[in-house]
């Protein structure tokens, strides 16, 4: 069986030498809890998540592969496209402060975030998918985005060791 590959900017030798997941400072206990939360969210998606997943699954949007309920750092995101460093979130009852903090953390490491409300997904799914496709097709330089975010907010926790943890049971369902 082949080893599962993870999206990373380090080369194979550097990845082997570095301790795993140090960039996010997430303990193994917390990481295990996050993976359990992601698994539970995959088993019991909201109506809006189910509707959007039906449109994103199977590389239907521009030929890009999405994973659902993915652990990235210290959070679980609804849909992630590792090839284009894009996260799509369906904001249900999440508070604005939590969403802003999550977006800032992801932007600090060069991940783009698109947020849609449940109502947007359910009432105008075509517009949501069009917005996702437009973002996927935009040229994106992750390193440049990271530098811009670091200059805007000099708190220094951005890292190039970002890993999309897609080794879950139902990532491409």
What does this structure look like?
- The structure is a single chain.
- The chain is α+β, with helices and mostly antiparallel strands.
- It has a single domain (12-165), classed as Endonuclease, Chain A, CATH 3.40.960.10.
- It is built from seven helices and five strands; from the N terminus they run αααβββαβαααβ.
- It has helices spanning 12-17, 28-43, 47-56, 96-108, 118-123, 125-137, 142-152, and strands spanning 67-72, 75-81, 86-91, 112-117, 164-165.
- The protein has a five-stranded mixed β-sheet with strand order 4-3-2-1-5, sandwiched between helices.
- The longest helix is centred in the N-terminal third of the chain and has 16 residues, at 28-43.
- The chain is globular and about 45 Å long.
- Residues 155-162 and 169-173 have low confidence and may be disordered.
Strand and helix layout:
Elements: H1 12-17, H2 28-43, H3 47-56, E1 67-72, E2 75-81, E3 86-91, H4 96-108, E4 112-117, H5 118-123, H6 125-137, H7 142-152, E5 164-165
Which features characterize this protein?
16% strand, 5 strands, 43% helix, 173 residues, five-stranded mixed sheet, alpha+beta
Give the structural class: alpha+beta
- In what order do the strands lie side by side in the largest sheet? 4-3-2-1-5
Report the sheet with the most strands, covering strand number, pairing sense and barrel closure: 5 strands, mixed
Distance between the termini: 20 Å
CATH-defined superfamily = VSR Endonuclease
Name the beta content range: 15-25%
Low-pLDDT runs of 5+ residues are: 155-162, 169-173
- Provide the CATH architecture: 3-Layer(aba) Sandwich
């Amino acid at each position: 069986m082949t080893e599962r590959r993870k999206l990373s900017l380090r080369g194979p030798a550097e990845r082997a030498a570095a301790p795993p997941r140090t960039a996010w400072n997430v303990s193994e206990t917390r990481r295990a809890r996050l993976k359990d939360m992601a698994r539970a969210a995959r088993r019991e998606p909201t109506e809006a998540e189910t509707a959007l997943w039906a449109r994103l699954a199977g590389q239907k949007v521009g030929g890009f592969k999405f994973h659902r309920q993915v652990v990235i750092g210290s959070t679980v995101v609804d849909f992630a496209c590792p090839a284009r460093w894009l996260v799509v979130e369906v904001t249900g009852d999440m508070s604005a402060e939590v969403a802003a903090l999550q977006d800032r953390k992801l932007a600090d490491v060069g991940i783009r975030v698109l947020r849609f409300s449940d109502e947007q997904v359910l009432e105008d799914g075509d517009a949501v998918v069009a917005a996702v496709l437009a973002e996927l097709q935009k040229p994106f330089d992750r390193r440049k985005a990271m530098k811009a975010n670091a200059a805007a907010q000099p708190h220094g926790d951005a890292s190039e060791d970002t890993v999309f943890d897609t080794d879950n049971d139902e990532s491409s369902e």
